[in-house]
Amino acid sequence: MTATEPFDTSLPSPIGRLAQLRARAVEAVVRDDRPTDVQRLMAPAGSLDEALWEALGVADAPKLLVLTGSAGTGKSATINHLLQRERETSAGRIGVHLADATHADAPDQGQAQRLADFFAPFADDAPTTVAEPCRLVAMNTGMALRFFHDLHDLDGAPPLSKLEALLRRRLGLPGDFVPVQSWLDAAVLVVNLDHRPTAGEPGDLFDDLLRRLDPSLREGVLEGAPRCATCTVRDWCWPMANAVTLSSERGRAAINAAAGDVALARGRQLAPRALWDAAAELALSGLSLDRHDSDGRDPCYAIADVARAKDETALLRGLACNGALESARPGTLVADIAMRDPGYAPSLVAHELIADAGLDPELDGRRCAEWLTGDTTLHPAASRGAQAMADGRVANLGQSRPLGRVLARAAWLAGELRGRSGLPPEFARALQAQKSGATENDVTDDGEALDGALSAIEEGLAEVFGLTSGPEHYYPTATPVPGSDAELLVEAKLVQNGLITTQPDPVASGNPAGSALVGYRPMTLALKAGKRSITVDYPLWRLLRQAAEGVAPTSVELERFLALRQAIRELGIKTAADPRQTLLVRERGTGRRFRIVTRNAALRATEVL
């Protein structure tokens, strides 16, 4: 470091490291058995890896471990940890392995032959005893489906129909579930990383990921950020100030809870790759590194430029409570997290905080400093930003929105305001009840929770796909014919007559060992409507509840749930076949309704309102 340099460039750039965590960076994808040093820091061995290693060491250990999941869920990282553990211990728990089957949706001819050879010990006609150590493969669902589809085209391919049926059942895929030999059922362990809870509760993956952003943590992704100790412009460096805030207990609790709510809203768990990208974007908070990425300039000079210009507006805009959450790109995880901003909730506390902002700048600055303090310290950049606020030098940040929004988000990161949204308690209770194995017929609290959820779902179904007339619900008996003058509907008591029922959670029941290892938490209710299996996730639950309250769903939302609409129509057709059921004719032009019942073998029609 020379007298003209603001920091020691011989030490690694912590801002550069944050940039390496983004999804578009080369570090985002782990290839085979060659993780980089950064990837090792991003994905150290965790509780899942330990649980898998222990499962491979018991007396009746599985002989085939299939790691599956969508892109970015951590299959390669997990398999690498297991292989490293095997190399270090020579325990003999893992034998033949294929780590590179995970990077394609379909196998080429060479890969298909390798997979066929790999699975040969588990063929339909194979011996019932496998003496070798556990075979290990990482492959996504698309690869598995394509492999079994193309298997018959391979010369001399082993018969794997039983293994295919077993994997389909464990993955929750449709298929002919032929009986599987008990030895094969016990020999195969399927771990679907799509079912690993990654955000929402303390101790989840995102919680630990944010904790490892702490610049002072030597085993974290910034490795203690040694350059920062030499930096003369630390008080302008909002990425490091943000890393301190986000990695604090309060900061990560707020962001992790919001991310968990996003997962529920999407109806699926968030991939680790997406979580790292969000963490990096939240910390960098709008810092442009494009020029530095293209010409190789040290990323920390981006902050040196801000310091040279003494741009306090840019500094305050870059703090985690502002830029990243205020200007996130639509459709990104950060944007969805920002939607949970409690400053937009109808809260008296948030309203007063926003309304009072600017009346007492010194109080605003003091609050901002308090709320952006990490577990023990306030970063110099956060301190400078708070002081600029206290001195009234950056009242509106050059924006039309008041400074109150910034304070509200700072209060959110400090746990002073709770994030918006959240899973409805009745839906949460139903999920837990189904996970416990209860049904709506049980005379227990769990049974009542499921019965109540089904009744709420029925109300929404009647509004979305049918018609409500007083206490009665009617459903179509046929597909509407264009130009017809009327439609015929039939009364159906979906819950009372057992036309819709709950089913055992397909993940927990179809793959009990694998789901237990990943700590599976259900995100959908599993139901049966007639002969169709359907799932109700949070988005569908919300749509149905809104419909029951009188909010008309859009055509886009209805198309999204096409399978559910088809199931309800099938139920209507089946119910209408019973001559004892009450029918309803609705005229299309006038909207008049006529209730039709059978009395002494004669039909009687009565107009109803």
As an assembly, this protein is single chain
How many E-type strands? 13
Q: Regions with pLDDT < 50 over 5+ consecutive residues?
A: none
Provide a count of the helices: 28
- C-alpha geometry: flat
Estimate percent helicity. 40-55%
Based on helices, strands and strand pairing, what is the structural class? Answer: alpha+beta
Q: Mean pLDDT, nearest integer?
A: 86
Commentary on this structure:
Helices cover 45% and strands 11% of the residues. It contains 28 helices and 13 strands. The chain has a 6-stranded antiparallel sheet, with helices on one face. A 4-stranded parallel sheet has the order 2-3-1-4, with helices on both faces. A 3-stranded antiparallel sheet has the order 8-9-10. α9 (205-211) runs parallel beside α12, α19 runs parallel beside α21 and α23 (445-465) crosses α26. The mean pLDDT is 86.
Summarize the structure.
By secondary structure, the protein is an alpha+beta fold. Helix content is 45%, strand content 11%. The strands form 3 sheets. It has a 6-stranded antiparallel β-sheet with strand order 5-6-7-11-12-13, with helices on one face. Strands 2-3-1-4 form a 4-stranded parallel β-sheet, sandwiched between helices. It has a 3-stranded antiparallel β-sheet with strand order 8-9-10.
